[in-house]
Known about the structure:
By secondary structure, the chain is an alpha+beta fold. Helices cover 50% and strands 22% of the residues. The chain has helices spanning 24-27, 36-46, 51-61, 66-83; strands spanning 2-3, 7-12, 15-20, 32-34, 86-87.
Amino acid sequence: MKIKDGFMLRQFGDSYIVVAVGDDSENFNKLITINSVGAFIYKLLSEDRTRDEIVKAMLEKYDVSEEIAVRDCDAYITNLKTAGLLDD
């Protein structure tokens, strides 16, 4: 999975937002706010990662059980797909 071209993650203090840039900004006129964990996953997906690679990275970075990492990763990926930000 990979974040589609035309979307950019921006940090403002402790907050993160995803915005469309270029031609995509005409079709996607929203701002998506995400927390630091969401930004971490977003950055991994910018590099084309599998779900298992993301879960492994979450387990290495955060003090969280595998069950919670899988649940949160799946929910986040579903939200990104629904918003139209992911290439399969």
